[in-house]
Design goal:
Length: 203
């Protein structure tokens, strides 16, 4: 599965770079603020981290196509589990770890084109699902589909190197839970905010 994900990323990145135009490659890391929504309700947020690599092909000074592969810690805070031996209810954070692949249009704006706004679809591949010491991955769908978006600013620090900061997130559209039967079933969707910093290199 991991080999397939990396292959998808690099094939898309290479195809962008084959035409004339600038190509940027880089890496970033940051903090996640994650929760899930279920119907009209939403859970408490939990803090995690993310780390990823990205590539962008510039069609013009204003527009580019960005491909991003990212490890994402999602889930929610203050979940409840029951101790099977004592029957006690415990409060724990629920950890959902994904590898997400996003392909986004990137709009560069401002007088120097250093501001940017990107948006596009993503697919997430579930790596693990745990609540405390309980592994419940089998109860979850293995993929998560949704919209990825961010706004950021690039700071040149050399002829071909830039540092960037960005705020963004991912909003899931698909149900991550397999529990879809019954009158009480609801669609559980991921919601994640991100604050990231990274470095870019022009090729």
């Amino acid at each position: 599965m991991k080999k397939i994900i990396f292959a998808l990323f690099f094939v898309s990145a290479i195809s962008f770079a084959q035409d004339s135009g600038e190509f940027e490659f880089g890496a970033s890391l940051g903090v996640n603020f994650a929760n899930v929504s279920a119907g009209e309700e939403s859970t408490d947020s939990k803090t995690g981290f993310n780390a990823g690599i990205q590539g962008e092909y510039y069609f013009s000074e204003t527009w580019g196509l960005k491909s991003e592969l990212r490890y994402n810690q999602k889930g929610w805070g203050n979940g409840f589990i029951m101790d099977e031996e004592t029957g006690d209810i415990k409060t724990v954070d629920v950890d959902l770890n994904y590898v997400t692949l996003a392909v986004m249009a990137n709009w560069h704006f401002g007088s120097t084109k250093r501001w940017y706004l990107n948006f596009g679809p993503y697919v997430g591949f579930l790596m693990s699902a745990e609540a405390g010491e309980i592994d419940f991955k089998e109860a979850m769908n293995t993929t998560d589909f949704g919209l990825s978006y961010a706004i950021g600013h690039k700071f040149p620090v050399g002829d071909s190197t830039k540092i960037f900061i960005e705020a963004g997130g991912q909003s899931g559209f698909s149900n991550i839970s397999k529990e879809t039967d019954g009158a009480d079933s609801v669609n559980v969707k991921t919601v994640t905010g991100m604050l990231n910093v990274g470095v870019l290199f022009a090729l």
